[in-house]
Amino acid sequence: MYLPLNALRAFEVSARHLSFTRAAEELSVTQTAVSMQVKNLEQRLGVALFRRLPRGLALTDEGLALLPVVAQSFGRIADVLAQFEDGRRREVLTVGVVGTFAVGWLMPRLREFQQQHPFVDLRLLTNNNRVDLAGEGLDYAIRFGDGAWHGTEAERLFDTPLAPMCAPDIAARLRTPADLGAETLLRSYRSDEWRRWFAAAGLPCPPLRGFVFDSSLALAEAAAQEAGVALLPVMMFERELRQGRLACPFNQRIVLGAYWLTRLKSRPQTAAMAAFRAWLKVQADCT
């Protein structure tokens, strides 16, 4: 069945506003033209799509069934057409990123990526290291860990050493690592971090009774607000160190994992994916 595109558009806009008059204003045509387009569509379909009320419109059951399909179709057309802005096709790239990495390392470099690869429409989805590449429709995910994720191809970017960090006033009273035993030690969902740090420092780990956070960003903010001492990836919080919001009282650091660029092995590589991977590897190698 041939259905005129203008009639479908008139229906979609009218259904959104539930008014032929407001639809006409959006489409820059007359109210009569919109009404006639909708009537023509109803005649072709053999059903009524609206109930005409004294003040406005109401969708019939048939109109309610048709609206989401038409709206989605016009939305997809708009998305594709948007890729051809500036006379060239743009390619969407969706990347899931651990929030700490996104804020502390990636965002200061994004402008350079945009300048080098203007055809890529980069979309970032932040997370706390729990990600579903297939379920979320991700081209890539940047994760922290050991690189072993089932069905996933992983490329190591760089290690992220952890060290105690806290507000400057707290740091001022810490002379040796043993002094941490008198402080509140903030914890992440990785429960063995403090134990391993104290082992590397040659000390027994004191009882851990501090708050637990699922995000290093929240952990760092709590530390900056003097809630306690946090074990954090120093590289991700260099800005806070420069600003004096956080201090790193000890040089002892441990490496429990790295950041990795991951993708499903079954995911074909697009031009946008290749451009992002190559750029990211160069940036990581310079870190």
UniProtKB/TrEMBL annotation:
Keyword DNA-binding among record annotations: yes
Coiled coil: none
Keyword DNA repair attached: no
GO biological process terms on file: DNA-templated transcription
A Pfam family of this chain: LysR_substrate
InterPro entries: LysR-type_TF_proteobact-type, LysR_HTH_N, LysR_subst-bd, WH-like_DNA-bd_sf, WH_DNA-bd_sf
Gene Ontology MF terms in the entry: DNA-binding transcription factor activity; sequence-specific DNA binding
UniProt entry keywords in alphabetical sequence: Activator, DNA-binding, Transcription, Transcription regulation
Ranges for domain HTH lysR-type: 3-60
Family: Belongs to the LysR transcriptional regulatory family.
Name this protein carries in UniProt: LysR family transcriptional regulator
Source organism of the structure: Herbaspirillum aquaticum
